[in-house]
Design brief:
Length: about 180
């Protein structure tokens, strides 16, 4: 039976780091399925999903954990585990969220609380801080993919998010086709 390894990796950013990971995964019989990676303040941070045959999973996990200079956590799970949108858990609409507003402490807390209060699942979340093009003030940008629970009206979600601040621009839409 196939197995999934979910890896979280943190290391000092350097050229060849992703190549080192992918070489080890391939040599161990794994298949790189999905990943999110970023360089933040000189540190590489990544989360990866790797598929591997059950009988090779432990050896691959050990080989990955033996790589020098990495802080690595490996979580093993069955490949057929039910997730959002599976037959075991019906899902509502998937929406793309784009939010722009003046930066201030607590924005992510406020957004995530509003989503959690409505049982909305965040499947992808990216944030950045930048300078406003005209004012030079610190601006906060967020992009997310959201999985709504059945019955939640996207208009109600938009109102809830816009109600958190008069200065935010909130755009909810259908994500582009993959």
């Amino acid at each position: 039976m196939p197995t999934h390894l979910v890896l979280t990796v943190i290391a000092a950013d350097r050229p060849g780091l992703v190549s080192q990971l992918s070489d080890t995964i391939t040599a161990g019989g794994g298949n790189w399925l999905d990943a999110r990676m970023a360089s933040l303040a000189g540190q590489f941070a990544g989360i990866l999903l790797v598929g591997v045959a059950e009988e090779r999973a432990d050896a691959l996990a050990a080989a990955l954990q033996a790589l020098p200079g990495l802080r690595l956590v490996v979580h093993k799970s069955a490949a057929d585990a039910a997730g959002p949108g599976s037959a075991a858990e019906p899902a509502g609409a998937t929406l793309r969220l784009e939010l722009l507003g003046q930066d201030r402490p607590g924005i992510v807390r406020d957004i995530s609380r509003a989503l959690a209060d409505r049982q909305v699942s965040i499947t992808d979340f990216q944030t950045e801080r930048s300078s406003g093009s005209f004012s030079g003030e610190a601006m906060f940008k967020a992009r997310a993919l959201l999985q709504l629970p059945p019955g939640l009206d996207p208009f109600d979600l938009r109102q809830a998010l816009e109600g958190l601040s008069d200065e935010w621009m909130v755009d909810l839409g259908v994500p582009p086709a993959a």
